[in-house]
Amino acid sequence: MDLKDLRKKAEVDFKTNGFPTTKEELWRFTDVSRVAGAEFSNDWKISDLEFQPLDKITVVFENGKLSREKSNFEDLPTGVCIGSVLDLVDPRIGTLADAQSAFVAANTAYFGDGAFIEVTEGVEMDTPIHLVYLADVDGAAFHMRNFISAGKGAAVTVIEEYIGLAGATYWTNVVTEAFVADGGLVDHYKVQRESESAYHFQTLEANLGTGSVFSNHAVTLGGALGRNDIRGKLIGEEGEAICNGLYLLKDKQLFDTHIFMDHAVPKCNSHELYKGILDDKARAVFCGRILVQKDAQETDAIQSNGNLLLSRGAKVNTLPQLEIYADDVKCTHGATIGEMDDVALYYLQTRGIDPVQGHAMLTFAFANEVLDEVKCKPAKRYIEELVHDWLHKVAK
Amino acid sequence: MALLEIKDLHASVADKPILKGINLTIKPGEVHAIMGPNGSGKSTLSNVLAGNEAYTKTGGQVLFDGIDIDDLAAHERARAGMFLAFQYPVEIAGISNMYFLKAAVNAVREYQGKDQLDAMDFLDLIEEKKKVVKIRDDLLERAVNSGFSGGEKKRNEIFQMAMLEPKLGILDETDSGLDIDALRIVSDGVNALRSPDRGFLVITHYQRLLDYIVPDHVHVLVHGQIVKSGGKELALELENEGYNTWVDEKGA
After folding, report:
1. Residue A343 CB contacts under 8 Å (≥ 6 apart), including other chains
2. Residues with Cβ < 8 Å from B221, sequence gap 6 or more?
3. What's the pLDDT at B251?
4. Do residue B52 and residue A362 have CB atoms under 8 angstroms apart?
5. Which residue among B79, B95, B108 places its CB closest to the CB of A365?
6. CA–CA min distance A368, chain B (Å)
7. Between chains, do A352 and B104 touch, taking CB under 8 Å as contact?
8. So what's the ipTM on this one?
């Protein structure tokens, strides 16, 4: 089926099936009726929002459309192609994303733009590609479609950043498909700083070839209601999927992470490290499913989800799901939900550090384990800055 | 003026009375040792002095450098020059020792009206203090006490004390869990920090530590009260005779 037919079919599917409800297992804790019940229109306008370029290459989408004026991706090395997903064609677009998902169907049917990134065989791209999505239209829906491809032995770093206007209510619905060929490397980041009233959903799917590496760091700060569906398909031996995340939530934010690691072949690793800090009446859902298929011997899968609650009203549902059909595997998972460590706070106090500063230090320390794993230096610096700002805001 | 003046101190933990009228005065330059069996109230004393909110002072008065400690929260006592070396130093994942030390040193300096140390000055101070208390560079880079051996944790406590230059150092069973080499290194560090204007309160179960850190005064703590005080020879007496005399008398 070509993309045109795929989009027609998706529209029919979405119109027929609609949005999921909390009666469905995958959506048990996340009620999306606020999105389903709202009307969204797509009147395009220029965005007034500012952003901080992390490096030389930026691809800017303002209110759902690529802005060549604000972007900077003209001067690229040979073998690197960046552009709009509407202009550049690849038969793999739409073949990876889960067609069963209502959000994917809506995206496939209605996507208006998105990034196309292709790095051909053997090309190692040093400069990170910073994708910026600016949203400041109240009542708009932005269906963004991204495509990332790293050829054999190719390497690329991609940072998706979503920025929204404070107070604006809109719906961002993203699908990112990443294909990592044998020996390839995709280092992917997502920084979600949507408006506190916005709805943000992303489905990120990665296909990992033999000896390839796909790593994802998802940092979530914004949105009233949000969800990341992340699926890694390990289809070549000795592939490595790293899936880390940090969510910092306050007020009545609800953020849901669903990860599905599919080990189809032997000798692959998948590592998941997720940390959450929740204040006020914020809620988080973490569901990490690891499937080790019958042939996937010598699988090494680790999953960990730690949560720090700063208030009595905050709540977390964390659900590890391991399905193991091979016998020679190493799989571990752990989930914790805790409060501030009073003994550690006292220890800092006996060294002259006041409780407010001690609180901030310990909270940052909790998040720091995830930041330590960030390899891309500009991304790391920027994320650290965002985490500090957030902690400063919630400091009582 | 006395550095620490404890007058008829009573304290309880979870409504259970532990300290039942402690009197003790430490002058600058003096090293006092408190010895006692398990459960006598040794750790309660150090925690009440340092300001641990899990412990409640129920009576009496404690003056530190002339200030009533009731008026000072734990971090203010530390800034005023009190230092507690923990029996069980706390592991803090995610904060490097260096970062932690810099925050602590600058918090104390701010209280003293001194300028904040920048990165270069701080490194100079680290180098200077490494001559007093030997500590490996990798321990300074690692998260606070995380994965440190028992000896490394205690050494880190003494290093922190050297960095913060307190007026009073309280060592809460610093010898527990140390082998003889570690004990010697830690004691050498403490001895190097002894000075005419700094006092120490050394709390221990065993006399062994006092072979290395020789005290001016020794007090025996039993059932929350000081039952005997004397010179350094009292520690040796205890080593030979044990605490049984007092424990039995009180009918424990």
Report:
1. B90
2. B22, B34, B35, B36, B40, B41, B42, B45, B227
3. 45
4. no
5. B95
6. 6
7. yes
8. 0.95
Q: What are phi and psi of A93, to 5 degrees?
A: -60, 125
Nearest chain A residue to B99 by CA distance is A361
Helical ranges in chain B per DSSP H? 42-50, 74-80, 97-111, 119-130, 137-141, 150-164, 180-193, 208-212, 233-241, 244-249
pLDDT at position A396? 60
| Least Cα separation, residue A361 to chain B (angstroms) | 8
Tell me the per-residue pLDDT of B76-114, one tens digit each, with 9 for 90 and over: 999 999 999 999 999 998 899 999 999 999 999 999 999
Measured CB to CB, residues of chain B less than 8 Å from chain A are 50-54, 73-75, 77-79, 83-84, 86, 89-90, 92-95, 100, 103-104, 107-108, 111, 143, 160, 164
Domain residue ranges in chain A: 3-340
Check A361 against B103: CB less than 8 A apart: yes
* CATH top-level class of B30-51+73-249: alpha beta
Cα gap B232→B219, rounded to integer Å:
9
Sheet holding B16-26, edge to edge: B16-26, B4-13, B55-64, B67-68
Q: Which residues contact B99 (CB under 8 A, 6 or more apart)?
A: none
Answer yes or no: is pLDDT of B248 > 80. no
